[in-house]
Write a structure and sequence with these properties.
Blueprint lengths: L2 E4 L4 H12 L4 E5 L14 E4 L5 H8 L4 E4 L12 H20 L4 E5 L27 H21 L3 E6 L1 E3 L8 H10 L5 E2 L3 E6 H14 L5 E4 L2 E4 H12 L6 E2 L2 H18 L7 H6 L9 H7 L6 H14 L8
Parallel strand pairs: 1-2, 1-4, 2-3, 4-5, 5-6, 6-10, 7-9, 8-12
Antiparallel strand pairs: 9-11
């Protein structure tokens, strides 16, 4: 039976599509009229056009499907108007859930994010049970995803619908067309445009591991539970150092205090409002950098059989893809 994948042309969504196809599972890919379809244009999938803000298009898209992978989201760390982000991430996810339940879909995997999880304040990696409140969410993206996960899980419980939630950490790898904020760091560092860094950290994971984790959640996940799909905790300095080794460039040695970066973010946002587009750095991104975003995937490893490759492999695959597609120069 067919699996519907929302956000199928996006970075994580396309990786989920590839994982499903590799496991010989038929895929129906939901894309918007304006979606960049390069990630799936050569893949043997059934493509349907729809939008999370159009309930009728979702009902048509899910008809006849056995499973749903709801990966689509409005992922921006800065937006001049946050209204559309809340509409897509919260209400759009509820529309997708309602359409899936109406179509008697057997199970849905909802893609949330580690952005909605709590922090241990440096006492070790956080997990699915680390306490957190919406007041701790920095910026509209994190708040919208927090509210979306909460709303979707509550509505699924009311309906008695089989929902499993996954919380990817910071995926990198092939297919980062936009690219994502982390992908931009990799591109800038590889091109020698990252002379300094701030003291922060991320949990780095290969996007293909995240995709395989979605399939494991579909097959083995417990209804009502959520699972972190992460990899290895790395400081930004370590990430940049690994990129330097892979590209033959010198690693940045200047550590900037966050208070020095904040005024730059203010100026970047002001310029973005005037000129359009996204700022190179936002105030919310600077605020997020105040914490090392480290997470444990132990629950997924234990209950799903989830595994992940070393971060050097993930970074090498990301760099190779960026080089082959012209984001990064091939020379050292």
């Amino acid at each position: 039976m067919t699996t519907l994948v929302t956000g199928a042309s996006g970075f994580v969504g396309a990786a989920v599509v590839r994982a499903l196809l590799a496991d010989d599972r038929p895929v129906r890919a939901l894309v918007r009229a304006t979606s960049d379809r390069r990630n799936i244009e050569t893949l043997p999938v059934e493509t349907v056009q729809g939008d999370l803000n159009d309930a009728q298009s979702l009902r048509a898209a899910v008809a006849g499907c056995r499973f749903v992978m709801h990966v689509a989201a409005d992922y921006r760390l800065w937006a001049p108007d946050a209204g559309p982000m809340y509409e897509t991430n919260v209400q759009g996810s509820l529309r997708m859930l309602e359409a899936a339940a109406e179509a008697r879909v057997e199970r849905m995997v909802y893609t949330s994010s580690v952005a909605v999880l709590g922090s241990t304040g440096g006492a070790g990696p956080a997990d699915e049970a680390t306490p957190v409140t919406v007041a701790e969410m920095i910026g509209p993206y994190k708040r919208s995803k927090f509210l979306a996960e909460q709303a979707v899980r509550e509505r699924a419980a009311e309906l008695g619908f089989a929902l499993v939630t996954v919380n990817p950490s910071t995926p990198i790898g092939p297919g980062d067309v936009k690219p994502t904020p982390t992908g931009r760091i990799i591109v800038d560092a590889a091109n020698g445009r990252m002379p300094a860094f701030v003291d922060t950290g991320l949990n780095i994971v290969h996007v293909d591991d995240v995709a395989r984790g979605h399939l494991l959640a579909l097959d083995r996940g417990k209804v009502g539970e959520r699972y972190i799909l992460g990899g290895t905790d790395m400081s930004l300095q370590e990430i940049l150092g690994t990129i330097a080794q892979l590209t033959g460039r010198g690693a940045p040695r200047i550590r900037l205090p966050r208070r020095a970066v904040y005024p730059l973010a203010v100026c970047a946002e002001a310029f973005a409002r005037l000129a359009g587009g996204e700022p190179l750095i936002s105030r919310d991104a600077v605020r997020m950098a105040a914490k090392h975003m480290y997470f444990s995937s132990a629950k997924a490893e234990r209950e799903l059989g989830y595994t992940f490759v070393e971060p050097g492999v993930a970074l090498a695959d990301a760099l190779d893809w960026f080089q082959r597609h012209g984001y990064v120069g091939r020379g050292r």
